[in-house]
Amino acid sequence: MTTEELIRNQIMDNIFNERPGEENDWDVFMETTPVNEEIDGFVACEEFEWNSIHNLREKMKTDLLNLCALQEDVKSNQSLFIVEQYDIHFSKSSKVLFGVFDSKEKAIEEMEKGFETLYLGFNDFIQENGNNQWVVELLDMGVEIREIQLNQFGEV
């Protein structure tokens, strides 16, 4: 089932208590000529029962457009955050990957917890070193958290 079909089913489940349950319920409701403001097999839930077929169709179309646009926006703007350890000079050859996280907050939290476990006192000596970089001079190390976008082609 496509994402649009899943969204259509969710919209219909929110509006109707009863519907035929066929794969083409959406199309049937959108294309069938109502008789006395009813379409066989479709019973709107209480919140929508006094709406006309026309108003329900317009609401469904608008909801579908909005939810599909939102889904695309969320999907295209999703980021991952990579925690990497370096030497104090941030030499590329010293880079070691320590994790990939779905939020910057989670990456920072796990960086502090994880490195404190590996290097006792890490959190006492860590200093911010610019945007998304930290150093611990006592340990001769640096840490960077990089943000990358999902589903986008390019050098990482």
Q: Name the overall outline.
A: rod-shaped
Strand content: 15-25%
Write down the secondary-structure element order: HEHEHEEHHEEE
Count of the separate structural domains: 2
The gyration radius over C-alpha positions equals 26 Å
Determine the fraction of residues in helical runs and give it as a percent range.
40-55%
Q: List segments where confidence is low: pLDDT < 50 over at least 5 consecutive residues.
A: none
What's the helix count?
5
Tell me the number of strands: 7
Q: Look at the helices and sheets and give the structural class.
A: alpha+beta
Q: Cα distance, first to last residue?
A: 32 Å
Overall pLDDT score: 88
Largest β-sheet summary: 5 strands, antiparallel
Widest sheet: strand ordering: 4-3-7-6-5
Q: What this model shows, in words?
A:
- By secondary structure, this protein is of the alpha+beta class.
- The chain folds into 2 domains: 3-76, no CATH class; 79-149, no CATH class.
- Helices cover 40% and strands 22% of the residues.
- It is built from 5 helices and 7 strands.
- It has helices spanning 3-15, 25-31, 53-76, 104-118, 122-125; strands at residues 16-18, 43-44, 79-87, 96-101, 127-128, 133-136, 141-149.
- The protein has a 5-stranded antiparallel sheet, covered by helices on one side. Strands 1-2 form a two-stranded antiparallel sheet.
- Strand 3 and strand 4 (96-101) form a beta hairpin.
- The longest helix has 24 residues, at 53-76.
- The model has no long low-confidence stretch (mean pLDDT 88).
